[in-house]
Amino acid sequence: MDSNKLKLRLEDISEVNPALTCYHRDDPAPVLPLREEPDLLSWLENTGRLVAEKDGDSQEISTIEEAPEDIFSMTSSVDNSPDSHQDIEIVFKNGFPVGINDEFLTPVEIIQKANDLAGNHGFGRIDMIEDRVVGIKSREIYETPGLLLLIKAHKELESITLNADVIDFKGIVEKKWGQLVYQGFWFGPLKESLDAFISSTQTSVNGRVKIRLYKGNAIVIGRMSENNSLYREDLATYSKDDVFNHSLAEGFIYMWGMSNKIWAELNSKTKE
């Protein structure tokens, strides 16, 4: 496999979103030229980052109303999605998606194909109440079929390749990471430290995940990791071939529940 195919080409960025600009990790963060522009809107207009609103584009709806179908461009409605399911397989290496259905792709190609596959089956819409940094609640409606599909597959592969305590703590890290990015601290020291932790957990996230796409759903139907799976069928099975020594459970249960046993005995005496 050509290693260059796995490298993100800078010219591909504009194909996904012409408003995006790619900066290298070591480049200084761009600063809004507030002294040259009277306000943020003017800066967005002058730099081509503000898309002019067409007549009829703006639709105000209450929090209980269903979002109008015409606001979606990447995802089919459930009614218009195919009547038969489609099974796909996503391949990961060191935590990164590298292929779909045994076709190895660049990062941009992965996103594009995932968008097409998931969006066609009506998967990838988000309708939520969001808390802005300034404290205002707003209803936000997004569609991101490809990313939601890849995130779902990635989490499933982590479930078989990472220890339970790592998965639990990583969930806390992910939430904080998202908050930092949302608040604009992409280049902050805490975000950089969290990046290092996340990267360290991904060296064993190798394998593939099977997902069934159907009528707005992405259902995991299988997962495997040839070299990094922590799943042991001989330990997990409920059959007679189970190799786990169940006699060890008695001592474990006694030790595990000792603190609660002491607390219960003490409190029962106090109540008497």
The coarse silhouette is: globular
In round numbers, the mean pLDDT is 85
- CATH first level: which class? Alpha Beta
- The portion of residues forming beta strands comes to 15-25%
pLDDT under 50 segments (min length 5)?
1-8
Fold topology:
Blueprint: H1 10-16, H2 40-46, E1 86-93, E2 96-100, E3 103-104, H3 107-120, E4 125-131, E5 137-143, H4 145-161, H5 164-182, H6 189-201, E6 207-214, E7 217-224, H7 233-236, H8 248-256, H9 258-271
Antiparallel strand pairs: 1-2, 1-6, 2-3, 4-5, 6-7
Helix pairs in contact: 3-4, 5-6
Question: Can you describe what's shown?
Answer:
The chain has 272 residues and is α+β, with helices and mostly antiparallel strands. It has a single domain (3-162, 204-261), classed as Argininosuccinate synthetase, chain A, domain 2, CATH 3.90.1260. It contains nine helices and seven strands, in the order H-H-E-E-E-H-E-E-H-H-H-E-E-H-H-H. The strands form two sheets. Strands 3-2-1-6-7 form a five-stranded antiparallel beta sheet, covered by helices on one side. Strands 4-5 form a two-stranded antiparallel sheet. Mean pLDDT is 85; it is low at 1-8.
